[in-house]
Every structure is written in C-alpha cells, then in structure tokens.
Amino acid sequence: MSHILEVKNLRKEFGGVIAVDNASFVVEQGTRLGIIGPNGAGKTTSFNMISGSFKPTSGTIEFEGKKVSGLKPHKISRMGIGRTFQIVRAFGELSVYEHVLTGIMAHNLRFTPTADQHHEVDRILELAKLQDFRDVTVKNLTIASQKLIELATALATKPKLLLLDELMAGLTFVEIDETLKLLRKINEEMGITLIVVEHIMKVIMELCKKIIVLNYGEKIAEGTPQEVANSKTVIEAYLGEEA
Amino acid sequence: MKNNLEKTAKMKSKPGLIRNVIIIAVVLIVLLLLPQFASDYIIYVAVLAMIYAVLAGSYDLTTGYTGPLTFCHGAFYGIGAYASALLTLKAGFPFWVAFPVSGIIVFLFAAVVGYPGLKLKGHYFAVTTFFFGHFIYLIILNSVKLTNGPMGLRGIKPPESILGIDFSSLQASYYLILFFGLLAVVFLFFLVRSGIGKLLVSIRENEELSEAIGVNTSFYKVLAFSTGAGIAGLMGSLFAHFFRLLHPSTFTWMTSEMVVIMALVGGLGTLFGPIIGAGIITLILELMRFAPEYRFIIWSAALIVVLVIEPKGLMGIVGRIRGGKR
Amino acid sequence: MVFQQIVNGIIIGSTYSLVALGLNIIWSITDIPDFSQGGIYVIAGYASYFAVTLARFPFFFAVLVAMFVGGAIAFLIERFLYRRWRGSGRIQLLCAIALFFLLSNAAILFWTAKAKIFPAYLKGSISVLGSIVSYQRLVVLFVAAGLFILVYLFIMKTKIGKAIRAASQDREVAEVVGINIDTVNSVVFFMGGALSGTAAALISPLYAVIPSMGDLPLLKSLVVVILGGFGSVAGVLIGGLGLGLIESLGAVYISSGYQHGFTFIVLIMVLLFFPKGLFGKA
Questions:
Q1: In degrees, to the nearest 5, what angle opens at C-alpha B218 toward C-alphas B216 and B222?
Q2: Average pLDDT over residues C202-222
C-alpha cells in the first residue's frame, strides 16, 4: 500500500515549551489511523500542523508526495486534507443545507450553484442522516448535531484524508454507534483515509486499524489496537499520568 | 422546539416573496415618477437618499456579510468624488470615462490598504480604518493646489449627453443616479446570494473553519472590502457630477460614521435593511431640516438605542415582531 | 525657536500621555478601544470652564470637578452600556464610537460651536534656555507627572491595583482566583475618565474650550496606545511625549496642514511592521 501522508521529525515549540517533539509516522492510503495519548501529548497540535493552522518549528509533512508543511490551511484543504475541530466550529447563522453547500462552494466555486451541486448537498445530508434538519439554523442545534454538520461540510470538500479531532466527545452511546457506522462507510465506500484523535478507547479500538501513541510530544508506540493495548510503555504512560 | 423551527421555515416561503415583490414594485414606481410631481428640493433630497442607500448597502457587503468592522467608507466615497471631478477638470476626461476609472481607482486603493490591514488582529483594523478615514479627509483639505482645499472644488461638469439624453437638467441627472443606484443594488443583491456571497458569510461566521474548508479568507476579505469601497467611489463620482460642487466637509469621519450607523440601524447582513433604512431616514431627516449637528445626536443616540434593544437592527426588530420569540 | 517647540511638544504630549494611560488600561483589560473618552474629554473641559466662570471655583478645584465629571461619565457608560455586551467586542466598539459623536455633538447643542475662552488663572512665565514658558504650561507638566506617578503607585502597590494587573494579564484566570471583574472594570473606567477629564481641564486654559477639542487628543492617544503597546506605562509615556514632539516640530518642518496626517502615517507604518506595537509584549 502506498503512503498518503508522511510526517518526518515533526517538532513544535511554543515559547520554549515543546508540544510535539520529533514525531515521525506514515499513514497508508485508505487506512483508519488512531492517535491517542494523555492530555497535552501533542495530538491536536499535530493535527493543526498537518492542516496548516500552525507552522512546524521543524520537520516536514508530505501529502501524496508533495510537501504541505508551511502552506496556508486553505491550500492544504484544496489539496485534499479535510478536518474537524476539537471544539466544534460552525457557521451558526446558516441553515444546515447552506452550511454544507458552503463546503462545496469553497472547493468548486460557481456564481450560482449548479443542480449537481444541490444534489451533492442532499446526498451528503442523507449520508450523515441530517436531512430532517435541512432548513434548521445551525446554531439552534445540539453540539452533537453541529459536530455532524462540521463533518458533513468537510465531506463536501471532497477530501482524500480526513482529520477528526475528538469527534465523539460528548456524544451518547447511540450517537457514537451511529457515527462509527458513518465513519466506516466514509472510509470503505468513499475511500477516504481517516486519522482520528479520540479519548474514548472503545471508539479507537473498534474503528482503527493502526494506532499511534503520543506522550509529552513524542511517539512512544505504534501498532495494531491489540499490540498497543498490551504494550508496557503505553500502560506506563497512562498510569504515570494518574499517579 | 421543532414546531418553532417549522414555523420559521414556512415564513420564508411564497407569501413573503409576493409581498416583497409588491413592495419593490411600489418603491420603483414612486422613484420613477418622483421627478414628475416633486419640487427641485425634493429631487435633491431623493438623490442624496439614494446615494446614502447605496453607500450603506455597499458597506454592508464588507461589514455585514464578510465581517470586518470598518470606519472609512466615507473616505472611499470622497476619493471617488474627487478623483472623478479632478479627472474631468484637470485631465479633461469625459465623465463616462472618469466614472468607471474613479471606481477602479478606489477599488485598487482599498486593496492596497486592506491587504496588510485586514491581517491585523482584534480591534486594530477597525481603529486603523478610523484613522485612515480622517487621514484622507486631511489630505483632501490640505492639498490645496490639487483639490482647492477648504475653498471647495467648483465648476464640475454634468455628464456629457449620450444617446441624445442631455444630463444638464435636474430630472435627467436624477434618472442617471437612479439607474446606477439600482444597478449597484442589483449587483450587490446577486453578489451576496451567489456562491461568492456564501464564502463571504462563512468568513464572518467562523474564519478558522472557513479557511479549513478551503476558502482563501484573506483574499476574499480584501475582495469584499475593495468591492464595497469601489461602489462607494462610484457613488462619489455620481455625487460630484450631480451637485457639481465638492467640499472636504462632505467627507469627514462624520460621513463614515453616518454610513456605519445607517447600516447598523437597518440591520447588518441583510442588504435591504441598510438600503431601505438609509434611504428612508435620510429622507426624513433632510425634509425635517434638522441642523447637521442635531442629526448626529439623533443618529448616535438611535444607534445606541438600537444596540440596546436589538443589535440586529430594524430588520431584526421586524423579524421579531413577525416571528414571535426567536 | 526649536527649543520652544520642544517644550511645547513635551507639554502637549504629556496630556496625550494622560488620556492614553487611561485608554491603555481600559483597552488592555476590557478589550474596548474606548472612543467615548474623546467625548468625555469635551464634557469635562466644559465642566472645568463652568466651574471657573460660573461657580467661580479656583482653578485647582475646577480640575477636581473635571476629574470627577470625567470619571463619573466613564463609570456610568461602563456600568449601563458596555457591561451589557461583555464578550461582543464589535457592539462595544460601535457603542464607544457612537458615544464619542453623541457627547461631542451634545456640546454643540448645549453650548454652541463657538469657542469659549478660559480665563487665565496664573499669569507670568519663566525663561528657560532663552525660551519663554508660561507658568500655566508648567502646571500642565507637573500635574501630569504627578498623576503618572500616582497611577503607577496605585497599580503597583494597592490591592485593587494588583487585581487590575492580574485582570490585564488574563481576565478568565483573574475571575477564577476570585477577582471581581465588575469592580475592576468600574475602577478602571472611573480612572480612565478621570485622567481624560484632568487632561481636558489642564489644556483648556492654554487653548480654548470648543466642542471639537476632544478630536485630536482622542486620535493621538489611540495612536499612542497602539504604538506603545498594551500594559506598558513606559510605552505610553514615551509614545505620548514622542507624538507631542513630532507634532510641534512637524509644524515647523512639515506644513502645518499635514502634521496630523504625519502621525497617522507613522501609525500605519508601525502597524504594518510591528503589529503588536513598539513596546508591546510578544
């Protein structure tokens, strides 16, 4: 399998504080990768560097063989990396329909959206089971729905790789199961590679084919869910945090 | 909850559309027939109201739809007015060339200011535009050799006749301004409803998310800022060739502030709120012949009252009355 | 001639610094570029004028009146307007600008646009290095210097001053550790208004009392805050004096019509190259 993303010696400092230290990993095309680690391990910072919100202090990120580190977020998005945010972000005043349509416009701007683009919105809303909320103003919806809308809007940009930052946090068990199904569908049927950061172990274990463990900005383990679950270093890192 | 949502969804449907069409038709007919029965004075006031309406509408593109708060729209209006007047007076351009050129000059000028300025964080850009507006006024006031400074610029010619229409008469120039004013409104209307308009609104709503879904936010912010400014410049050109006399005091920070207040009182981000609000209220205030300083007191107080009662402006108040609780 | 201009520059600059000091503290704590201070300045200037002419107060009491009037207006504005919109900075900024226009135009409504001449309270002058400096100008300098020291001591030494400093570092953390943000805001606004009011009372006898008297001090002190950076007393002092000097020397070397424009060019250049101000903390 070929690599869609290659991260080499990635490092980020904030005024002397090291958030990510020398992290290197590769992501295979079509996989579902999980990144876990205690709070402050550098997971979100890594996402922010891959998506362009932060510039790495050093190190490189290559997406489909092209260097993306240092590019502006909108350029990276247009190359095919989509993301959702840890704390939900939404265009609150828009209707759910307009929200997703904005995602399409961002990548394929038309003065007047075409009929195909309208169908595309409907298709995505159906996929995310949002069709009942089509004309509702986004800010009137629950956080769980807004997260789903954020995901749907990211899908509208036709990404090849999706970075999902704690998408499941705050969701009920039923919602988590629904979202898991959706993510599998996105991955298997649409061929979108997923990288998820998640605190809920059940999600990581069920969803991911491979897991990377970060601690204090360093990669301390990498492997299948079973390997990681049985790894001594990982257990120590987690227990160490509680002690 | 769900009932309420259905209600708001229904409100936007057909009956509203028909009502809006009727309102627009009535306004258009009144505007078209006005010179037939109104006195010269009323026509002057109506022209001023139309110009302010378009200024407020174009301001809404930048601040209402895209987000950044600015306080220099009056300066762009002034640059357009003086650019057009000077191009015709000193460079001998015909109005029909000076008019679009002055719009382009202001557009480019705004882009040069906006490109670095819109990168500033927090209130810095808003405050900087306030200074910038005042700076332009000082330049107009003090560049005596070019603008004739505080003595004002006289002898500006009316637009040359075209297609056999002579624009030296009051009525004909009224229709000219009505035509371009409507054109500007139609342009703004389609722009804010277009795909580009959606991108602009996404920047206002959440710039970080907008950037993350692939919108070149710095480009579109500058585009919206410059387009709004360019339209203000065109209005300035029309103003110059209608009144044929320019004075720096027309373009002080008060003018910028008036535009901000009109747009806000009308309701930012609704386009028709600022346009209708600005038009009607200019009309009322001019006809009641308030001295300018009283007008500023009324306007400033009105803005504070609107902010306290309903930050979404008159359109928000109308929506609240019609839609019950939000 | 040049020395005379330098003295004038320092004196006018010290009043900019006073207004800027209040603006700086307000801006760094509440995130409001408080344009209303320009209007407060006007009203306080008239208050001092009427205190001297109508109530026949001695000048020193007139300064106190202006101080109190300025402080009280600012306090009320914060308490009844800005406080409603905490967290929505756009509305606060819009309200601040509307208040600036409202107050300065109210002065036209009440007292007409005609300049009122403030009677001299102290006659005579001294000669310093060949240039003549009136006692009234020296008073401006000394009172401004005294107030600067007072405000500095207040912020550094008192309990509420410590709360203000904490709040300017991080509002949320300050609230968590039990600092009452409402009280801090009230104190800060009263102080800012009082500083503007004092500056107005000090400068009025040198020029005149007119409704547009607040325009330049407001613009210049906003420039000082932006150039000097937030939370920097030294930045305010250097910025204010520097601007005063540029203005009075500029009047000699650059055409007087452009001198204020020159300030704004400096501002725009600095913002482009140092977006956080010259003395701002990164």
A1: 120
A2: 89
**Beta strands A32-36; A210-215: pairing state:** parallel
Tell me what pLDDT residue A76 has: 94
**What are C99-133's pLDDT values in tens digits?**
999 999 899 888 988 888 888 888 878 887 777 88
Same domain, A188 and A74: yes
Let me know if residue C158 belongs to a domain: yes
CB contact under 8 A, B69 and C90: yes
Are A76 and A168 members of one domain?
A: yes
Q: Do A102 and B202 touch (CB under 8 A)?
A: yes
Distance from CA of B212 to the nearest CA of A (A): 6
Domain, as residue range, for A126? 89-158
Do A167 and A239 lie in one domain? The reply is yes
Same domain for A106 and A206, yes or no, is no
| Residue C29: domain span | 18-212
pLDDT, tens digit (0-9, with 9 covering 90-100), for C9-39:
888 899 999 999 999 989 888 889 999 999 9
Ranges of residues in chain B whose predicted pLDDT is under 70: 1-15, 290-293, 319-326
Structure token digits, residue C235: 């930045």
Test B205 with A92 for CB contact under 8 angstroms: yes
The pTM of the full predicted model, rounded to 2 decimals, is: 0.89
Same domain, A27 and A100: no
Phi, psi of A66, deg, nearest 5: -110, 140
Among positive and negative, which fits the CA dihedral C27, C30, C33, C39?
A: negative
The shortest C-alpha distance from B147 to chain C (Å) reads 14
The answer to whether the Cβ–Cβ distance between C257 and B141 falls below 8 Å is yes
Q: For residue C278, tell me if it sits in a domain.
A: no
Coil/strand/helix, residue B158: coil
Q: What total number of domains does chain C contain? A: 1
C187's enclosing H/E stretch is: helix C181-203
In 3D, which of B314, B210, B202, B212 has the Cα closest to residue B263? B314
Chain B positions touching A82 (Cβ under 8 A) are 212-213
- Interface probe with B: pick from A72, A94, A109, most Cβ of B within 10 Å: A109
Residue with tokens 């002055």: B102
Give residue B111's pLDDT: 94
Is the separation of the CB atoms in C36 and C103 below 8 Å? Answer: yes
Residues A72, A134: one domain? no
- Residue B130 in contact with partner chain C when CB distance is under 8 A: yes
Q: How many domains would you assign to chain A? A: 2
Test A106 with B215 for CB contact under 8 angstroms. Answer: yes
Give pLDDT, residue B14: 58
Count of CB atoms situated within 10 Å of the CB of A235: 13
Whole-complex ipTM: 0.92
Nearest to C94 among B131, B138, B303 (CB): B303
Residue-level pLDDT, tens digit, chain A, 243 residues = 588 999 998 988 887 788 888 888 889 999 999 998 887 788 889 899 999 999 999 999 999 989 998 899 999 999 999 999 999 999 999 999 999 999 999 999 999 899 999 999 999 999 999 999 999 999 999 988 999 999 999 999 999 999 999 998 888 889 899 999 999 999 999 999 999 998 888 888 889 999 998 887 788 888 888 888 888 877 777 765 543
CA distance C178 to C175: 5
Q: Are residues A74 and A49 in the same domain?
A: yes
Residue C224 to residue C239: CA distance in whole angstroms: 5
The three-state secondary structure class of A23 is: strand
Contact B172, B166 (CB under 8 A): yes
Q: Which two tokens stand for residue B236?
A: 């300035």
**Residue closest to A78 by CA, chosen among A90, A66, A60:** A66
Contact A153 B210 (CB under 8 A): no
Percentage above 70 pLDDT, chain C: 93
Q: How open is the CA angle A36-A40-A41, to the nearest 5 degrees?
A: 45
